[in-house]
Amino acid sequence: MLALADPDLDNGPRTDRSATMRMCAVTREVRPIGELIRFVVSPQGEVIPDLKRKLPGRGLWVSASRQTVAEAVRRNQFSKGFKREIRAAPTLPADTDALLVRSATEALAMAAKAGQVVAGFSKVEGALAQGQAQALIHASDGAADGIRKLDAIVRQKRANLGESQDFPIVNVLTSAELDLALGRSNVIHAALLAGPASKTFLSRCQLLVRYRMADDDKSADAARNSD
């Protein structure tokens, strides 16, 4: 029986020595670790998400999907996987979402400190015009008019340059969350400039979007495309 349970944990199936694949404890699908969330047990016996995959102890892997995490709680999958009574809070799906948001806002704050973010409609418009912007950020609760105007600039610029590659447009954070990340008030629009910190932010947004949308769209990305 041990051999059947082990695939749920860190020593589960992998395709190579870099251990880039794991099995979801709920769906039993083997997926890249970037599409899953690792969960560990705290010293207090509580299930906690390990978003950076660095916390000590054995980990149980679940597809990055709010619905799948909820199913893991409902089916008592954590106790089964860890082979002992584990307290998985009913709020774990929402708690995981909140941690993903915090992870994304922390990454955005780091990008801002590195000088890789500009905020405000005029500055974003200028970054787009000068070809400096690598991605757009809109507050999810922002006014549609400003969003449409900036998205139209992106479409026009891509058309003029004949670019076919998608331009990331991130809209998963609220204005309050953007305010917190950037240390200013009433942030509705921002643009990412080139740099490693910007890439980290986009990567974390990708996981957040996947978590929220994977059940509706298996190909969910970190940004909606400006078609």
Short description:
With 227 residues, the protein is α+β, with helices and mostly antiparallel strands. It has helices at residues 2-5, 66-74, 77-82, 92-113, 121-129, 144-161, 175-182, 196-213; strands at residues 21-23, 30-32, 36-41, 47-50, 60-63, 117-119, 133-138, 168-170, 189-193, 224-225.
Write the layout of secondary structure elements.
Layout: H1 2-5, E1 21-23, E2 30-32, E3 36-41, E4 47-50, E5 60-63, H2 66-74, H3 77-82, H4 92-113, E6 117-119, H5 121-129, E7 133-138, H6 144-161, E8 168-170, H7 175-182, E9 189-193, H8 196-213, E10 224-225
Parallel strand pairs: 7-8
Antiparallel strand pairs: 1-2, 3-4, 3-5, 6-9, 7-9, 8-10
Summarize the structure in words.
This protein is of the alpha+beta class and 227 residues long. The protein is built from eight helices and ten strands. It has helices at 2-5, 66-74, 77-82, 92-113, 121-129, 144-161, 175-182, 196-213, and strands spanning 21-23, 30-32, 36-41, 47-50, 60-63, 117-119, 133-138, 168-170, 189-193, 224-225. The strands form three sheets. A five-stranded mixed β-sheet has the order 6-9-7-8-10, with helices on both faces. α2 runs antiparallel to α4 and α4 crosses α7 (175-182).
